[in-house]
Amino acid sequence: MTRAAPALPLLGALSEGQQEMAREYIRTVLETNESVNLTAVKDFDDAMVKHVEDSLSLLPVLDRCSPAGPDGPASLLDVGSGAGLPAFVIAIARPQWSIVAMDTLRKRCDFMTATADKLGLQVSRVGEW
After folding, report:
1. Number of folded domains in the chain?
2. CATH code of the domain containing 110
3. Which domain covers residue 63, as residue numbers?
4. Is the Cα torsion angle 86, 79, 38, 126 positive or negative in sign?
């Protein structure tokens, strides 16, 4: 029995290009996860819900905190970003924002740097603390 693809209403609010970039990001996370432990989630559909939709659910609050609103510039620091969540999903949804992603493990920082380059994401900086 084939299960239906999950409903992704928050992803659906993004442009087609942003939606594809989010899907490519999750494919990259899951592919890398086979050799580097980034997430306990192994299934693509589950990752789209648990990682992408959950990250996008932060946007209403973040937009209200931004003096310029969702269309203006803003800065975001994601401490403990792990596989880049929620920083990368927010960077996809709000490309005009300046986003810094940090983690304690070099392997995760290396993954985030390589993935930002691969996807052309404007993550200002990836750092290890």
Report:
1. 1
2. 3.40.50.150
3. 15-128
4. positive
* 44-78: pLDDT as tens digits: 999 999 999 999 999 999 999 988 988 899 999 99
For residue 66, what are its two tokens?
């931004």
What is the three-state SS of the chain? CCCCCCCCHHHHCCCHHHHHHHHHHHHHHHHHHCCCCCCCCCCHHHHHHHHHHHHHCCHHHHHHHCCCCCCCCCEEEEECCCCCCCHHHHHHHCCCCEEEEEECCHHHHHHHHHHHHHHCCCEEEEEEC
pTM > 0.85: yes or no = yes
* 4-31 per-position pLDDT tens digit: 778 888 999 999 999 999 999 999 999 9
Query: Is 10 within a domain?
Result: no
Token pair 């940090």 is found at: 102
